[in-house]
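Thread: quick sanity check before group meeting

JM: Hey all, I'm pulling together slides for Thursday and realized we never actually wrote out the predicted structure for the chain we discussed last week. Dropping the sequence here so it's in one place. If anyone has concerns about the input, flag it before I start.
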Amino acid sequence: MIDTRPLSEVTQEAIDVLLREIGVVNTVRFLNQFTGGFGNYTEERQLLFGELTLDEIIAGIEQDRVDDQASKS
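JM (edit): ok, ran it. Output follows.
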């Protein structure tokens, strides 16, 4: 017979193993890769870039780099 414990119990045991084996920092890094994030990427992308073409976006990035270098001189 298969042991079917509550998922919360299995999750806690898995976190305990990770903490013991790879430490706090790496456990957090590992768990963060599974978070779904938040917000609406499509909506935010439209607000940021609107009707800009890829070429226009790239040109803007390149100009920002030039401006940053000029301001550091």
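AS: nice. Residues 7-32 form the longest helix (26 residues). Helices lie at 7-32, 41-49, 54-72.
JM: adding both to the slides.
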